[in-house]
Amino acid sequence: MRSFILLLLFSGHLSAGNVDWSVIETPPQFVHDKNADTVFFKVEKSGMSDESAKNTPGNLLEQTIHCLANGNPRPSYRWKKDGKSFLPSMFPEKVVQKPGEGSLVFSRLDETDAGLYQCEAENSNGTAVDRPVRVQETWIRHFKTAEPEVVVVEVGDPYQRNCSPPASNPTARVYWILMGKEPGHFETISSSHISSNEQGTLFFHYVNETDLKSDRYYTCTAENIELKDYKFGNQFSLQITNNKRRSCEFFISSFK
């Protein structure tokens, strides 16, 4: 194509100043915003309460996969799902293709809509194939029901506690908080001698008497960042002893 244009320019039929680029044929080239590698959705259950619908991020109930390309002639679009032809017109109750482009707008999705979607733009000069986009349902389960535990630990000793978060898609972010015995009362743990890792293990590098919280539980929290939903479980409180200190004091005093 470029060689053909240069040939015309040098032959005197066109000059660089008056090339009508609108008549130059070009293959499709995508110009839309980049899609995320994975697009999550929440199934809108029948009978969903107003409170549940209000707490669900709006983008999870309606999702768009962008597909728009330039080209001359104007490209046409087609879609594949899991490697097979996908015709949006076959599902008018849940997906609409934007006029003049290939972008798909999904609503009222369910489990059958999950899959790997890929857009193709085609004209007489070629075909452009966009990066595939995985569409997945997002969800998070509950912790197993268990009564809070009381853990006996010696002051000054290290202690660590694991957390077994519930299944979640995507994988839940896990961290610990202090939760009051009354619903709705919680606070972050902000002590320099206490830390946690991404796997949800809580570390007391040494137990301090201030770690005793008579009215609160150390509580493992699992957060699905797509759903903006939290689940609480794996609670415990500390019973702190100082037997070693007393034994040491007794041993020292016996030599006086």
Automatic annotation (TrEMBL):
One of its GO terms (molecular function) is cell-cell adhesion mediator activity. One of its GO terms (biological process) is axon guidance. InterPro entries: Ig-like_dom (IPR007110), Ig-like_dom_sf (IPR036179), Ig-like_fold (IPR013783), Ig_sub (IPR003599), Ig_sub2 (IPR003598). The keyword Transferase does not apply. The keyword Acetylation does not apply. Residues 28-136, 148-241 form the Ig-like domain. Residues 1-16 form the signal peptide. Keywords: Immunoglobulin domain, Repeat, Signal. GO terms for cellular component: axon; plasma membrane. Pfam families: Ig_3. This is Ig-like domain-containing protein. It comes from Caenorhabditis remanei. The lineage of its organism: Eukaryota, Metazoa, Ecdysozoa, Nematoda, Chromadorea.
